[in-house]
Amino acid sequence: MVDSLMNTYARFPVAFERGDGAWLWDTDGRRYLDALSGIAVCGLGHAHPAVTEALRNQAGMLVHTSNLYRIPAQEELADALTGLSGLDKVFFCNSGAEANEAAIKLCRFHGHRKGIDLPVVVAMEGGFHGRTLATLTATGSRKVQAGFEPLVQGFVRVPYNDLDSLSTVAAARNDLVAVMLEPLLGEGGIVVPDPGYLEGVREICDRHGLLLVLDEVQTGMGRTGKWFAHQHSALVPDVMTLAKSLGNGVPIGACIARGDAADVLVPGSHGSTFGGNPLACTAALAVIRTMREEDIPGRAARLGDYLQGRFCEQLASSELVRAVRGRGLMIGIELTRPCGDLVRQALDKGLLINVTAERVIRLLPPLIIDQAQADQIVATVSDLVREFRAAA
Ligand code: PLP
Fold this sequence. Notes:
Elements: E1 16-20, E2 23-26, E3 31-34, H1 37-40, H2 49-61, H3 72-85, E4 89-93, H4 96-113, E5 120-124, H5 133-138, H6 142-145, E6 155-158, H7 163-172, E7 176-181, H8 197-208, E8 211-215, E9 239-242, E10 253-257, H9 278-293, H10 296-315, E11 321-327, E12 330-335, H11 341-348, E13 351-352, E14 354-356, E15 360-363, H12 371-390
Parallel strand pairs: 3-13, 5-6, 5-7, 7-8, 8-9
Antiparallel strand pairs: 1-2, 2-3, 4-10, 9-10, 11-12, 12-15, 14-15
Helix pairs in contact: 2-9, 3-9, 7-8, 10-12
């Protein structure tokens, strides 16, 4: 490892050289099965031919111009995303944190227009929204915030999956402008809220005139078995943010809004040099085209059910396993004790996984995995859990 990198990641001493679908090869030629997708990024797997070809063609033609000019691929992508989501307008940026920053700025601008001088956004305990100052303030984790005080003003927090708390806060304050949350918690431990929760949040927002902002950075683009995770429920957000798998690894984020919220930002109020450039938008268009043609969300739903079912069979009797949960190919296996060591042990067995919220094994495989690969994930992870129990 080199000394010239800032020490922001505790990296494993392995480097990948190439990939193909759900497989990765390291610089020593060893093959790994990827059950993490670069943390929910490579939904179509590695080196997907449609994305590769689109990138190759576009890179040879034009990579970047500027948002000072029209960008046809950006316009086409905005149409595609509004079509898929039922929302009205898109702002493009480069990451999840930036998409959420745009959403927060939009909410504040909207609040000022309504005459609220110091608008406040309600965020959730256990939520994760990014590492910029505003998004780490919105993030409900002291670990993410510690050392970066002073935090940004204008946020209050309520417990996730708790409509009563939200309702109480909404009724008690007159400076609120929005509620911001993930439709299911990713970093927070793959927490699926109760049926009716999101509809309940929508209802509270409507009752109090608040914008509902859904962070679908991790859950979006087919990951949970629908294009967007909230589409499992009967509601439409006012604002939705995307990033991660939108470009299958090419950095791109999007803040999408509807109705009045879609017209809040105006020239001069927000911007991004790279946001929605021709290369990134071409990649995202190839992703959407492929996902549509191959019904990738449907595939994620089927394989996710299969994987969860197999894990329940394999691990139901283990007293170390508290729960197997998730949606589509966003799966968490919560153990009764911290299990961060499993990530290294899985790597040694040729499998890429992650552990979040200390004791939740998080699986986010590419949405294109086949059943044999799903079986291999189940077998390896189940063995690891059994060995972990034996070593306890
Ligand atoms: N929002 C959610 C729900 C996320 O899971 C993440 C990243 O894990 C982010 C926002 C931040 O995205 P980025 O790392 O692209 O800034």
